[in-house]
Write a structure and sequence with these properties.
Elements (H helix, E strand, L loop, with lengths): L2 H14 L8 E5 L5 H9 L4 E4 L2 H14 L4 E4 L8 H7 L2 E5 L2 H14 L4 E5 L13 H13 L4 E5 L8 H14 L4 E3 L6 H6 L4 E4 L1 H4 L6
Parallel strand pairs: 1-2, 1-8, 2-3, 3-4, 4-5, 5-6, 6-7
Bound molecules: pyridoxal-5'-phosphate.
The site of pyridoxal-5'-phosphate has 13 residues, from β8 and α9.
């Protein structure tokens, strides 16, 4: 597919759901993709990108920022506490706040640095051992604690288990967000962003459908 086709699909999903197209941000997930592929998307005017790893983002985006203005970078991969400062310097949003220690670290750094990226709290809706995110049962408390630290928590994020119906997870995430007064919902990837938009996604993270398959070398 192409960027244009995905934009159209996002717009169509919004219309179907009776939602404004502007209420959904398309994050082009550029992890592992070559600079040539990323530049091609930038040349088409897209400015919102997602990366999984701080290291990889740091090696790539400062250079692009010298050439293209208005780039908005979203970190969507698990974040180690010792990388938090670098993440906050690089990114306009972090989607993977998932534990108290990371929250207190980000709060301290935000004081020191005088700014903080938008934050999404990752919820492990499938309660998978190998996956990051706070458990659904712990989410309300964690959200309240993070807000009490004055952190700019904009919403919640989830990655459904690969072998389950994603809509159940999207609906659960939306329910937790609503009862905590949070508007942002980062959910939906290449295979299920249309379902996610129908269930209220405000941020969809689409990689391979825009860039083509990731080639790991
Ligand atoms: C890689 C990744 C995506 C994009 O996945 P695609 O299936 O290529 O669209 C979205 N979200 C997260 C957290 C990812 O790690």
């Amino acid at each position: 597919m192409t960027l244009e086709a995905i934009r159209t699909a996002v717009a169509n999903s919004c219309h179907k759901a009776g939602r404004e197209v502007d209420d959904v941000t398309l994050i082009a997930v550029s992890k592992v993709q070559s600079n040539a592929r990323v530049a091609a998307i930038l040349d088409q005017g897209h400015r919102v990108f997602g990366e999984n790893k701080v290291q990889e983002a740091a090696g790539k985006w400062p250079d692009f920022r010298e050439i293209y203005s208005g780039i908005e970078l979203h970190l969507i991969g698990p974040l180690q506490t010792n990388k938090a400062r670098q993440a906050m310097e690089l990114a306009q949003a972090i989607h993977t706040l998932d534990r108290p220690k990371l929250a207190t670290t980000i709060a301290r750094l935000a004081q020191e640095m005088g700014h903080c990226p938008d934050l999404f709290i990752q919820v492990n809706t499938g309660e998978e051992d190998q996956k990051a995110g706070c458990l659904p049962a712990e989410a309300d408390t964690f959200i309240k604690d993070a807000l009490a630290m004055d952190l700019p928590v904009r919403g919640l994020m989830c990655i459904p288990p690969v072998d389950e119906e994603p809509s159940l997870h999207f609906a659960l995430l939306a329910k937790i967000a609503a009862r905590n007064g949070l508007k942002g919902l980062s959910m939906g990837m290449s295979s299920d962003f249309e379902t996610a938009i129908a269930l209220g996604a405000t941020h969809v993270r689409v990689g391979s459908a825009i860039f083509g398959a990731r080639v790991y070398e």
